[in-house]
Amino acid sequence: MPIGSVFNSGVEGFNRASQGIEKASAEINRASIEQQDDAQLAQQRQLQAARPEEAITAPVSQPPKIDEALVNLKVEEFNVKANTQSIQTADEVLGTLIDVRV
């Protein structure tokens, strides 16, 4: 396999992993904002209730996807590390080839 294709594959993988990190970060942000909004809504309902027995609890909703987004973030971190290592190895091999041929 030519060194150039290894280097290009590493760069492409690094770029994909960077995009995955951005996506996971956005999902974490969105989920945390939704979670805060739900908590504020439940608090407002509690304050608006005339008597304690009329208090309305927060509606049961799907669990936040923060856990899934955090796992995706960690996976992309490993992808970045692996692709960075591929780029470094290709660079070292290319450097060694140039030094040998000179």
Keywords:
mainly alpha; Excinuclease ATPase subunit; 102 residues
Instruction: Please summarize the sheet with the most strands.
Output: none
Shape: rod-shaped
Order of helices and strands: HH
- Strand segment count: 0
What percentage of the residues does DSSP assign to strands (E)? under 5%
Low-confidence stretches: none
Average residue pLDDT: 81
Label the structural class.
Answer: mainly alpha
Number of domains: 1
Topology of this structure?
Layout: H1 3-48, H2 66-101
Helix pairs in contact: 1-2
Description:
It is a single chain. The protein is mainly α. The chain has one domain. It is built from two helices and no strands. It has helices at 3-48, 66-101. The longest helix is centred in the N-terminal third of the chain and has 46 residues, at 3-48. The two termini are 22 Å apart. The model has no long low-confidence stretch (mean pLDDT 81). Residues 35-62 are annotated as: Disordered. Residues 38-50 have a biased composition (Low complexity). This is Excinuclease ATPase subunit.
